[in-house]
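[audit] Reproducing an earlier prediction to check determinism. Same input, same settings, fresh worker. If the tokens differ from the archived copy the diff job will pick it up downstream; this log only records the rerun itself.
[audit] input (155 residues):
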Amino acid sequence: MEIHIQNQQTEIDWHEELEEVINSVAAGVAAAMSLPIQAEVGVVLVDNAQIKQINKEHRHKDSETDVISFALNDEDDSGPKHPNADWLLGDIYISLEKTEEQARDYGHSVRRELAYLTIHGLLHLLGYDHDTEQSKVEMRQIEEDVLSAVDLPRR
């Protein structure tokens, strides 16, 4: 899987180790979900103000959040939105400020929180959701399996 990372924020120091985390968990999700080798995902790193604006514009929620996914394979009445939706999965927006805040709140590393948010966003791109208890359990199990595979399990 190819990951295109764009750092559009300046609040949190961005370094190679965090890029490696995103690439590692994306590879873990690709393997776990048997994604085609040509699969592509965009990961856009933003700050809290940016993600709040995205959340307001696209989800009509005037609040910060940690991760928002925009899948190219979401269907409407006319079919798939993009002809290459089988391998161009979409974009994930992650607030690095919120990532750091949540890592502190949950008592684990920024690496671990970024890994979790990346996996969570990727699963949303693949059609997973957490709107029912059963789907939440299924999604959480995949997240935990991939986190364990990259040695970032919940402690």
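[audit] rerun output stored. Observation attached for the diff report: The chain has one domain: 2-149.
[audit] end
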